[in-house]
Amino acid sequence: MPGSATFRGRNGLIAFRSDAGNTARRESHAIWVVNPDGTGAKRVTPGADPPKSETDYSPVFLPDGHRLAYVRQVYGGDFATANQIYLKSVSAPASAVGAPVLPESVEYPILSLGVSPDGHKLVIATQPPPLEETQIFTLGLDGSGMTRLTSGPLAAKSPDFSPDGKTIVFTARRHGHGGVFTVRADGSGLRRLTARPGDGAPSFSPSGDRIVFNRHAGRGVGIFSMRADGGGVVRLTDGRGVDRGPVFSPDGRSIAFSRAGAGRNPDIYAMRADGSGVHLVYRSRGRSFSDFAPDWGPMPR
Fold it and tell me: Has residue 283 got a pLDDT over 50?
């Protein structure tokens, strides 16, 4: 459940979802941040301690580089869930939950988030009743003005704003059909960019001229890039493992993503925007831990 937002500027922290240190019996993740050189990793959100069952996911930076938006899911004893979106400073104590965005927690799923370039709106993939599939909505950072942008039989997810705030890219999939799509921020002008249902996690470059995404490639999943109109598709990683959730750095020169394979759970990697120079950024201690769904924030201002 990746989050996505890329704002022009100097490169700041990379946020990601991790289950490092988790000893809960049920799935539990927290949001972490790390410097681009792999130093200074720290937990930003509570996650959960036994016997609790909470998970924090879909971290996405706000334009100021100081704050994150993320989703927190709390599991009840009757298998019901309560979902809420929070805002939190990366410098606040990790034990503290952020400020809630929605008026109250909801039982329906919230899959992923994006943030508008002016920092005033969120774009989310969610499924309020009576919808049968997740769709794309926008809402104010104060939780007001929730507006539906998409409809139809395909399950939409992984939305991301273009740098000018006029377009949203997302994926949609159901029963072997789907691909990457764009829609204007007012819900008009739906357009299909790719027709492969396995394409996922699209994200705009800071200049808005390219979109990176992951695609099933051979026996694995690789990172690809294309023009904002869907043309000029270029393969950036070989797909021998599982590379997912690509996001550009604020200066547009690099891409962060998660990589799994060779007997390891996902770790955070980065490479140049042309696919060269792939290198490990951060790996939690212990083979059983997973670090994934990165977002690359700007230098705080």
Answer: yes
For 251, counting Cβ atoms within 10 Å of its Cβ (0-12 exposed, 13-18 middle, 19+ buried), the class is: middle
With 0.85 as the threshold, say if the pTM is over it.
yes
% residues pLDDT > 70 (the chain): 92
Name residue, tokens 């042309």: 274
pLDDT band at 6 (very low <50, low <70, confident <90, very high): low
Taken in order of first residue, the domains within the chain and their CATH numbers are 11-289 (2.120.10.30)
